[in-house]
Amino acid sequence: MEEDRSASYSMGVQKDRNKVERHMAATAERRVLFVASECAPFAKCGGLGDVVASLPKALRRSGVDVRVVIPLYASIDRAHYALVPEGTCRVRTGAGEVNECEIFRATADGGVPVWFVGHDRFFARNGIYDDHGQAYSDHAFRFGLLCMAAAQVCRDRKWIPDVMHVHDWPTAVLPAMLEAWRNNGRSDGLERTGSVLTIHNQAYQGYSHSSALPYLGLDESFYTPEGFEAYGQLNLLKGGIVFADEVTTVSPTYAKEIRQEPLGCGLSMYLRRRGETFGGILNGADYDVWNPEMDEHIPAAFGAHSLIGKGSCKRALQEEMGLQVDATVPLFGMVTRLAAQKGTGLMRTVLPWVLHEMQVQLAVLGSGDPADEDFFRRLAQEAPGRLAVNIGYSEALSHRIQAGADFFLMPSEFEPCGLSQMYALRYAALPLVHATGGLEDTVAQYNEAEGAGTGFKFYSFTAQAFHDVFGWAVSTWYDRPSHITRMRERAMEERFDWEASAQHYLEVYERVAAKRR
Ligand code: ADP
Ligand code: GLC
Question: How far apart are CA 363 and CA 318, in angstroms?
């Protein structure tokens, strides 16, 4: 049997195929509500937004009645996305105050219904989590209201989900709210709703002042070291880890890594305690959006059968970004949030060194930490024609970089899953990555003896190791071009389909629904 790389639950899946078939039959009636802070294309800062768009789409194809709730941020263009007003929703907070929220609805790609919760005081702001780097200090209230409103939307419409699926710290409080409502003997159907928390990034935990507890409807029994309390504050992610019926994260390797410190970021003990109710399920890539054979953003189509179009994309990218037009020099691409997680510290040491020593080009698209932005601007001035940088966010350019690059750089210190390297594989931009989390699970190491593999990995997170793997990739480009050709073919044939991952989520929902029945 082929090895299943997509989940650390795979043992269970293979042990009992009949059980899988039975649950597949049952999923026809399953109702699942995603409650999240991002959902592409309406609101996206990173991969979380992609997942909250494409996993529901795949689940819907498997017959699940899945819907999504996100905030109505000021940045969401109502006319463009054809948002339909559905009236208001009265949300009574735990503190007794009644908030009127405006509810809008749209249908996302794949026919997934999305509800938007409008509340000007909390969501009509410039950013999702911060205003130009200044984090908002009232997240527990903002996203707490989102969670309460999501529940009220279900009650008002008598659409009671079997499972509420929450994502990262912003909505991690919802499992505890469900628990509190059950404890209070509330009977509106939601007492039988179970919860799943998916951790997309353990490093962001959502610390808040404990004065938010009454607002969230949580009494002191939730605020203990075994619950939400950490260092005298509310830790929203921790509460989710403790109170959710099941917890997942976005790759099998990251699931192993966060069961230990340091990547557990202080919470590894709570994950270990969960035993079998915590595991990793690999994200998928949305190949409707990321397909070089029909990508409206790129100047020439290409595929595994012919890479001629890729050559045109490389030339066009070099022209667009002001790099020397040269087919023979290896072009490294990068599309990233500029944050320490992404390995910007190593880049600062290694990239000037690489540019000094090696015949390479770099095309960078990114935004984030102002110091990192400055570093790249300066480096571009020092190496004109060889390093080009675009500080900003551009969906279209991100496709053109994937299509034009020969290699894709992702030296992340840690990476829960990573989607960009999956896109890179599909676009024949061989990933150069630190072997961590989902990068370890999705990139196969180059084997110089046989020419096998799909990318280049370094194992110890040091400048020397990053530099050396860079040199290895560059020497392979110049000295073993036939290996590059074969790696490209293999990379383009790799598939990380959402369908496979959605089946693992269905198993999780089934267990949760059985527990709450
Ligand atoms: P993370 O969620 O940690 O940022 P992922 O690799 O999972 O990392 O997802 C990143 C997503 O965000 C990808 O879809 C990538 O193309 C996109 N992205 C990141 N930075 C930019 C940018 N500056 N412009 C356009 N897209 C970007
Ligand atoms: C987070 C992680 C990234 C992951 C994404 C989607 O942003 O940093 O690795 O791919 O979530 O799950």
Answer: 8
